[in-house]
Design goal:
Structural class: alpha/beta
Mean pLDDT: 83
Low-confidence stretches: none
Radius of gyration: 23 Å
Length: 287
């Protein structure tokens, strides 16, 4: 006797129909989620100040359960190619819970690290010589202006290289702050390389309808008039706001540094990453 719920053979036509329904529904949900994210991003661009947008990034990362504990496949060969040999001293900014710092310490590097997250310090203390809960803004203020903060412990140190934690350079959304951070990095590393990964942009993105709706809502609620926004940064969901760099922007930043540097591009087949390194001619004059 066959049970009521005995598996029945399904016809290929029914399977194809169900699969088509699933793909349609999946695409509909994804498009809806994208529109909501764009609308929220447009709203927050207008509603929040630049400082609040940066703080939003910290809040999102604070809410994450855990970072990945291993380097990405492109990071290890990149570190080996660009960093001086161990036991060089490395400063890791926006270090999270120590993903990069742990690998560097295991390879024999002397590591100092900082991150603004509340939950970063326990794990950073396990692998770093010195660690602090502090931000890029406080680091710049301590190094460049002598302002006292948790970042002051790094201000008078010399490092053989600086590593800016994964994508953290793109989380700085004010172009003036990009140059200020690099100036602070040069102050503590001298001729050493500055490694960073980033969101890449080849063109200025267009503002979609959903994003325009979000911006209009925020302007209406604040009784504000439309303001000109830098289109290089955008809301990236739970990653917060991210600035998309063009190659020309990074080259200009390298040339503006004192002394001028060049950009060593990482593999274009993986997540965008590069290093600001002193040009050989300048390095020979500097040494």
């Amino acid at each position: 006797m066959h049970g009521r719920f005995e598996r029945q053979e399904r016809s290929p036509k029914m399977i194809a129909f169900l699969l088509k329904c699933y793909l349609w529904l999946d695409g509909l949900v994804e498009r809806f989620a994208n529109r909501v994210r764009d609308a929220v991003g447009g709203f927050l661009e207008v509603w929040l100040s630049a400082e609040q947008q940066s703080e939003l990034v910290h809040m999102f990362y604070d809410g994450r359960v855990r970072d990945g504990e291993e380097l990405h496949s492109w990071e290890e060969p990149w570190f080996l190619a660009e960093l001086p040999k161990a036991p060089a001293t490395i400063l890791v900014g926006a270090a999270g819970r120590g993903r990069e710092a742990q690998w560097l310490a295991a390879k024999g590097y002397v590591v100092d690290a900082f991150d603004p997250r509340r939950d970063s310090q326990d794990e950073l203390r396990l692998c770093a010589r010195r660690s602090a809960r502090t931000s890029y803004a406080e680091f710049c203020d301590a190094v460049l202006d002598g302002r006292n903060s948790a970042a002051s412990i790094f201000a008078n140190e010399h490092y053989d290289a600086v590593v800016l934690g994964w994508s953290s350079f793109s989380h700085i959304i004010d172009p003036e702050h990009h140059a200020r951070l690099l100036e602070a990095c040069v102050r503590v590393t001298g001729d050493g390389p500055i490694l960073f990964s980033y969101k890449q942009s080849t063109t200025v993105p267009k503002i979609g309808r959903a994003r325009r709706v979000g911006r209009t809502m925020a302007q209406a609620l604040t009784y504000g008039s439309p303001t000109e926004k830098n289109q290089r940064y955008s809301y990236a969901g739970r990653a917060g706001f991210m600035y998309a760099f063009s190659d020309d922007e990074l080259i200009a930043l390298a040339k503006s540094m004192t002394p001028p540097r060049t950009v060593h591009w990482g593999s274009r087949l993986s997540y965008p990453h590069a290093a600001f390194v002193l040009e050989k001619e300048a390095q020979a004059m500097h040494s």
